[in-house]
Fold this protein.
Amino acid sequence: MVLYPPTTEKVEREAKSYVATDKALAQVMDFYAEAYNLQRKVAAESSDMAEFSTIAHTEVEKPFLAGKAVPIDSSTLGELLQKMVEIIESYFPGEHKGVLSQLGAQLSAEDVSEFFGQAEKMSSVEIAKFLDDKGIDAEEKEVLDKAVLAIRMSVAPFYAKIAQAAEEKDWFKLWDKGSCPVCGERPSMAVLRDEDGARLLSCGLCHASWEFSRSICPSCLNDNQEQLKFFFLPQQEARRVYVCDKCKYYTKTTVLKELGKDVVPELENVSTYYLDILAEEEGYGFFEMGKHVC
Ligand SMILES: [Zn+2]
Ligand SMILES: [Zn+2]
């Protein structure tokens, strides 16, 4: 079930378990707890879903959002964006504080809801172009990464609402692709379900999760088993990196049965940053954040 933002209890419990094994994660967990609090206030507000009620199952070849924009209230988004920038700056202060504050102030004063409602515009490359058009200097990687985080965290509750609507229409059950059934993004990570080991891919934008074969690459759909494999760190078999030698895509994958607990994919994703470093060292790449398959 799409449950985003996650509940306070779940976030607290997860944070505790991550920090117990890696104290360096305390700050990032505190950031997410605060960001989710902000998002919860927005998630409670209703958006106009009329446009989505007419989507039929016969259209399931394309993502739920294909050709449609997410309805986003511009003043709610502006306020959220401004606060998100503030908390990012307070938890992760950097040398470029002025630029990020400018981003918060400028974008919260403009109506950017139409642009931010387009799923295909939420990749880091598209966001970089958008900021450049707005005259905001986000060329430095650190600034761009923070800007992308602020924007994607601010729009996520609106996208998650659409994911919930898609799920209610049984959209996920009919979907057989490696990209997100709702917004079309490549998965941010995966889990292997406790009860049957099935692979559930997770979307980092709308937070949908959908079942997808373990023996096919979610990015290029390669099914040559000699080119598909996984690796993990010694004594950490519950957290694996599945890779494709054809397209070099990798998917971090948590085996819930071996881990002995459920996870919040977003928190699991940031907490396993060391596997991203390892995957890159091994020559695999995630490409840019939010890149679309179709
Ligand atoms: Zn999605
Ligand atoms: Zn591949």
